[in-house]
Design a protein that fits this description.
Layout lengths: L1 E2 L16 E6 L2 E4 L11 E14 L3 E8 L3 E7 L22 E7 L7 E10 L8 H17 L7 H13 L5 H16 L21 E4 L4 E3 L11 E3 L1 H16 L10 H19 L6 H5 L3 H10 L10
Parallel strand pairs: 1-2, 6-8
Antiparallel strand pairs: 2-3, 4-5, 4-7, 5-6, 7-8, 9-10, 9-11
Helix pairs in contact: 1-2, 1-3, 2-3, 3-4, 3-5, 5-7
């Protein structure tokens, strides 16, 4: 059990059975055992996007941030909800999911939680929050980033891609932009599925019916091999060609021109990619149910594969 000391003045502490007391002196937290919980350390300033948040006590937050130069970092924002008598706050009264801003935090990879010392909000994505569909896609994008990449592993391209897709989700381009973002994430994380040739026999997928996707093998299977994969998902050849078209420019370094897509086209592909990622990661995707439900085209599979425990994936 940890008891926080009074912020207003330093005071002594005593050790009781089963308790660790913290003392706040000269701007530094000390434990009763002489360990500095907030010892001086180098600070870095980096653009960040909030991926996860957890309110800690009445005034503080524990956050997972995607920083551009330092990758994913977990930070403690002490006093995030506290305001002074003048109404000022270093954290603008708290940080919300998908908020983008300039964060200042301690750079010490040996600690599980860094300390966020300052936050300047730059974009709260208010337009995105006016659409429930756009908000669901934004939260799903944040979840995918948090699961596909390790902490302190810098991926500036991923930060830029997430920043761009959050902007696009507030426009009419949200469906095709999010699908392209998923493929970019999979390529950057090394989980890109095989979309050109059958993963079983190696033969090319022709322009014919009877194409399937096997999450257990991470790619498409032809109609001659599909019987050996009980987890296969049916895949319209036109949707497969669409995936290949979106994937190709990113792979070759060219300029990507996205066609206008609707949920009728993207829902089956989002379901397919969600199954692929769940099998690769070995855990459920919490936001997938909300992104994929509500459409007759996908509801039967969504209810079977995601709705059994929509709020407890990975528990």
């Amino acid at each position: 059990m940890i008891r926080s000391a009074d912020y207003s003045r330093p005071r002594d502490s005593s050790i009781r059975s089963g308790e660790v007391h913290l003392v706040f002196t000269f701007g530094i937290w000390h434990s009763a055992f002489g360990v500095d919980y907030n010892s001086p350390m180098p600070l870095v300033s980096d653009p960040c996007i909030c991926l996860r948040k957890l309110d800690y006590s009445e005034t503080s937050q524990i956050l997972m941030l995607l920083s551009r130069s330092h990758g994913i970092v977990r930070v403690m924002a002490k006093g995030a909800h506290r305001r002074t008598q003048a109404g000022a706050s270093r954290f603008d009264g708290g940080i919300d999911l998908l908020d983008a801003g300039q964060g200042v935090f301690s750079d010490d990879t040996s600690r599980e939680l860094a300390l966020l010392t300052d936050w300047k909000l730059e974009d709260g994505h208010l337009n995105l929050r006016q659409s429930l569909r756009a908000l669901y896609l934004g939260l799903y994008a944040a979840e995918l980033v948090s699961l596909l990449f390790q902490e302190h592993d810098s991926h500036p391209e991923v930060f830029d891609q997430l920043q761009k897709v959050l902007e696009d989700l507030a426009t009419a381009r949200l469906e095709q932009s999010f699908l392209a973002f998923e493929l970019d994430l999979l390529r950057e994380a090394g989980f890109m599925p095989e979309l050109a040739n059958c993963v079983n026999c190696g033969g090319p997928i022709g322009d014919r019916s009877g194409t399937y996707f096997a999450p257990s093998r991470g790619g498409v299977v032809c109609r001659n091999c599909h019987s050996g994969f009980p987890d296969r998902l049916g895949l319209d050849i036109r949707l497969l060609r669409l995936l290949q078209m979106i994937q190709a420019p990113a792979r070759e370094g060219g300029v990507r021109r996205l066609p206008q897509l609707s949920r009728h086209q993207t829902d089956p592909l989002n379901l397919l990619l969600a199954e692929h990622m769940q099998h690769a990661l070995g855990q459920r995707l919490r936001s997938a149910y909300y992104v994929l439900s509500g459409r007759p085209l996908a509801d039967a599979q969504v209810q079977r594969q995601f709705a059994c425990n929509p709020l407890g994936y990975g528990a």
